[in-house]
Amino acid sequence: MDIGVGGLLTTLSKMALINGGVGFNIDLSRVPTDECGIDPTVLAFSETNARYVVEVRNKDIDKATSILTDLGVPFSVIGSSGGDYVVVRWGGGRELMTLKLNDLKTAYNSLWGGAL
Fold it and tell me: Which CATH superfamily is domain 7-112 in?
């Protein structure tokens, strides 16, 4: 899914809800960026054309990373999907946010009327 309106966290949240309610656990410090010292908030919510989030099954990670490497496509594995929570970290350990997936769904539906 492209990282458009609302940035990375909005894109990941939409993916979590579209996929039938699957949480995620990511580390924003692993997101590729050319900028030094970028603020986590900017990284999380900046709208960026020509960047995408690709969800790959665990068993296919090696194949996917090999293909992207062979093609010279910059990428990073920033986390995993699964569970009932949305967890956002910085630098591996510093937790920025934890949210129950049901709370995310309620907030999204109250703002957008349930339209994904």
Answer: PurM-like C-terminal domain (3.90.650.10)
